[in-house]
Design brief:
With 321 residues, this protein is an alpha+beta fold. The chain is built from twelve helices and twelve strands.
Length: 321
Amino acid sequence: MAEPRRLATESPSPSASWLGRRDVKNRIDVVELISVMRGLKPVTLQSIEKGFLPQLESFCSSHGLSCATAEPVAAGETGPIVKQGSCRVVISRAREMAEELLLCSVGMLERKGELLGYPGCCVKKWCSFVCETRDDSFDRYIFSSLGRSPAFPFCTNNAFNFASRLQQRHQPLLSALAERNRAAAFNAFLGNLANLHLISHVPCSYACERSMEQGKAVFDAVSAADSGMAAELRKLLSRPVLFFGDFRFLVFSGIADSNSIAYTALSEPHSLLDAGLVAKFSAGDSVSVDSKEIKVFKSGRLLHAIPKVHEDDGIILPFGP
């Protein structure tokens, strides 16, 4: 496989002492920041607390990065959601690219994707899907992109990365999801659910070569900066997911194919799926999914048959190592 395309100049090695701090990981998407520093992505657009801005600006200045504040998300626009007391920032090694991103309007999806370093094939498919269906529903999109691969590589797992596909109206749900995982003392190495990804775009398929290429390069960069964080990313992103929609999913310690999951336990991160439904899966050790229902088994015995309301309820994403 070809070496991932990098920007013209490599950045200095990331400052592990600052990037590795738990309080920093709780406030910014460190994976994206490392990607920009290592020249793997030209720009990152993020939402941060305003009180964290001086610390971030100081870090960017000392590492040759441009850091500029952006306007809040416009109505109907997807991107990092801004809650009260927060602001959006654009970080880049090339100020002109950051400035161009700031000027992109709601309808300039393709150019915005290019500036953010998303593979062209993925940008084109997402834009086509949104234009043709007038729908930005992630669950319907991935249902159309699954294919029949026996397993998806961990480096293309974007099931937990919501920043690139949500709108401002989703803020209450996003806050509830963050609180659910904070209350469960979500992973000390990652600090923040926003760090649980290697690609930040919606892939055209989970076997997309350019997405895999980018994800592997980002993983190597994170490994060089924080080996503990990289190990946790690989472990959690390699676990199969039963996806009901944004904010509603289950992660399993187990193995899966396109129609079934065999598991020993449910895994973090946690979602906003109904507790009663979660309990049904907790009682089992395998799941099968067909066009009409989701079945939960224990030692081969059927425990629950859960009717599907829509065909894309309970999508199995068979991520693996």
